[in-house]
Amino acid sequence: MASRRATALAIALFVFGFGEELWFRYLPAYLRGFGASAFAVGIFGTLRDTLDAAYAYPGGLVSDRLGTRRALLLFGSLSTVGFAVLFLTPSIGGVFVALFFVMAWASLGLPATFSLVGEELEGSRRVVGFTVQAVLKRIPIVLAPPLGGVLLERFGMHGGMRIGFATSIVLSIAMLVFLERALRRAPVAPRSPEAAGKPSRTRLRPELRQLLVADCLIRLCEGLPDVFLVIWALEIVRITPAQFGFLTSILMATAIASYLPAAALAGRTEKKPFVVLTYAFFTAYPLAVVLSRSFLHLALASVIGGLREIGEPARKALIVDLADPRARGKTVGVYYAIRGFTVAGAAAAGGALGVAGTSWAAAFLPAGGVSNEGRR
After folding, report:
1. How far apart are CA 237 and CA 71, in angstroms?
2. Ranges of each domain in the chain
3. Architecture category of domain 4-183+204-374 in CATH
4. pTM of the prediction?
């Protein structure tokens, strides 16, 4: 069974994620409502990815020095400030400023969540732990985007988004109160003998470097068209915001359905085949989206997109397995910082391709080729 600390973290991920997922995937369309160009939307995606990379290592460093409880409370508080900025300053500039704070929980807090699972669970139980964490993190993505889409249709883009921002503020404050109490009361698992040694220099083992190279190429595939998915759906295929939210639900429901059998097998056998299978679906997804011309087509593409997650718990467990237990937070931070900086320019490149090619499809087609290289 998962420890009380790991369970508390999973609940916090669920609550925090539900509020954020009401509106986060609609931010590119929100920016378009203020008159943002395709390239400006691409810059937004690049800033998001750059912050994701820049926050990874300091997040790991803070986690190792302050402990996971204090680190998570700090990062959650910073994100709450970002939600307040979005609510109080509805503008393009407000979105860009808020992003510096909003990304704190997901990016600064990532090494802390890895460290907590790594501390609490050992061996094959780590795959199960990351699976439970992934499921509870993604259930809000199944539930919240359709609700967010309904809010946009009922109250308009700006009114619906502001309701979403306000909801995030309330839920994040509740999550911080719960997390502070739960992690303070829960017993801390004893550190393993190797983790209790002297702090080590942060180095990536050869196997972890190999995984990182493949991961970078695959994430380039994801980053080129990622922020333009909602624009493709709403402006090209011309579905409604609520339908787009439902597509997100299909994608995440597929991902969740794939986790449990994949995690059970990965815990008993090799993890690497599941990681490779994940990368195969990364290749197919952008091509399936760009070929879509109806809601049904996009629904089928979303099933393919959900299957990209089939090896995600195994990949995370593999990273923890290969990380030095004495500097796990920093190692995870270095891994995600390198990956993030490698792909940070992908969204802006996708926007430039869209402008140069006079079609959003130009951002999607190269992604399939990039991800295919990553599988090799």
Report:
1. 42
2. 4-183+204-374
3. Up-down Bundle (1.20)
4. 0.73
